[in-house]
Amino acid sequence: MASRGGPRAAGTDGSDFQHRERVASHYQMSVSLKSEIKKLIYTHVGIWLLLLAQMCVGHLKLLPHDQVAMPYQWEYPYLLSILPSLLGLLSFPRNNISYLVLSMISTGLFSMAPLIYGAMEMFPMAQQLYRHGKAYRFIFGFSAVSVMYLVVVVAAQVHGWQLYYSKKLLDSWFTSTQEKKKK
Question: Which keywords describe this protein according to UniProt (predicted)?
Fold first, then answer.
C-alpha cells in the first residue's frame, strides 16, 4: 500500500478497497424497512387524529349531530392503537426485538381487532343504506357509514402493511443477530 506522500504499491491504483466498503444486505434492508414502517406509522397517526377529532367534536357537541355523527363503538378501543405504533418507534434506535414483537402483537389486538369489529358493527347500517338508500348518521353531508368504512379499509391496509414490514424487519434483525453470534 502507499504511504501518505509516497508512491503507491506496484499493481494498484488505490481502489482495491472498494469491495470492503459495501454494507451487508440485512443492514440495508433494516434501514429501508424502518423507513417504510415510519411512513406507515405517521399515516396511522393521521388516521388516529382524525378519529380523535371526530370523537371530540361529537361528544363536546361543537357541531350539530347532522354534520358530525356520534362515534361508533369500535372507535373507542381503536384509540388504543397508538400504543403499538409508539412501541414500534421505540424499537428502532437499538433494534430492540422485544419491543418490535410487542408492537406486532398489540397491533393485532388494538388495531386490527377493533377494525374487524367495526366492519361487523356497521354492516347492518351499510346494508340499509345500500338496499333502501337511508342513512341516519352523517359526517359533513356524507353517510357516516360510508365514510367510516373508507376509514376502516384504509386503516386495515396501513396496519396490514405495518405488520408485514415489521415481520420482514424482525427477520432482518434475527439474521444480524445470528451473524454476530457466529463471530
Answer: Endoplasmic reticulum, Membrane, Transmembrane, Transmembrane helix
Inside any domain, residue 87: yes
pLDDT by 10-residue block (mean), the chain, 183 residues: 58 59 71 95 96 92 84 94 95 93 96 96 90 84 90 97 96 74 66
User: Number of folded domains in the chain?
Assistant: 1
Nearest to 87 by CA among 118, 63, 62, 111: 111
Listed in sequence order, the residues at least 6 apart from 33 whose beta carbon sits closer than 8 Å to its beta carbon are 165, 168, 169, 172
Q: Between vectors from CA 46 to CA 43 and to CA 47, what angle results, nearest 5°?
A: 90
Give which of 4, 7, 170, 41 is closest to 99, Cα–Cα: 170
In a domain, 14, yes or no: no
Asked whether residue 25 is domain-assigned, the answer is no
Angle made by CA atoms 148, 152, 156, in degrees to the nearest 5: 170
> Residue 1 falls within a domain, yes or no?
no
Q: Which domain holds residue 75?
A: 34-182
In contact, 29 and 172? CB cutoff 8 Å = yes
In angstroms, the CA 105 to CA 84 distance is 8
